[in-house]
Amino acid sequence: MKTTRTALALIGLALILPASPSVYADPPPWAPAHGWRKKHDPYYTGYSGKRWDDDYGIVEGTCDRDKIGAVLGGVVGGAIGSTVGKGDGRTVAIIIGSVLGAVVGHQIGEQMDKADRACIGHALELASDRNSVVWDNPNSGLSYRVTPVRGLDIDGRKCREYDLAIRGDGVNEKRREKACQVSEGTWKPM
């Protein structure tokens, strides 16, 4: 009888042990895996320390131009992009466009619209180093890739070095640039 109990216990143990590793492979309920932040934490803390209510796809490596365009719809001028939607949380970081036009060349700078500038600014704000953010502008036919390289402190200001690549419609530009935060949500190329 004792032998039967021991045999049954060993068989039961043999059936339980192979299942154990899969149980331990799942994340514990207090530390969920992939996607938790997007589902449960409505804020994204930017490079400058500001909390943003939407990443517009930046964290995943794309910029949702349509969504950003809707937020920027009533904005006049690139430099005030971060003030859009006061009180309702609809904000987006932006890079000041007039200087950026000089950085990437006059023709390309004129083809960039407010959404492109917002994608660059929000990428500087939320993308981590060495993680690219891409998007296409269907109006200009240009494709963009912004890759923050590293953070810098220049004269006490928060700055980032980044690679900017623009391609399409006879354009193939790639440059390494620096931009510094000039106010909350507003970046200016150096």
Structural description of this entry:
Keywords: Signal. Residues 68-109 form the Glycine zipper 2TM domain. This is Type I secretion protein ATPase. The protein is of the alpha+beta class and 190 residues long. The protein has a domain at 42-74 and 92-189. It is 32% helix and 28% strand. Strands 3-8-7-6-5-4 form a six-stranded mixed β-sheet. The protein has a two-stranded antiparallel ribbon with strand order 1-2. Helix 4 packs across helix 7. The longest helix is centred in the N-terminal third of the chain and has 15 residues, at 2-16. The radius of gyration is 24 Å and the shape is elongated. The chain starts with a helix and ends with a strand.
List keywords for this structure.
elongated, two-stranded antiparallel ribbon, alpha+beta, 32% helix, six-stranded mixed β-sheet, 190 residues, single chain
Query: Radius of gyration, Cα only, in angstroms?
Result: 24 Å
Proportion of residues in helical segments: 25-40%
What pattern of helices and strands is seen along the backbone? Answer: HHHEEHEHHHEEEEE
Number of strands: 8
Instruction: Estimate the global geometry from the Cα principal axes.
Output: elongated
Biggest sheet, spatial arrangement of strands: 3-8-7-6-5-4
Strand content: 25-35%
Distance from first to last alpha carbon: 84 Å
Short description:
One of its GO terms (cellular component) is outer membrane. The protein contains seven helices and eight strands, in the order H-H-H-E-E-H-E-H-H-H-E-E-E-E-E.
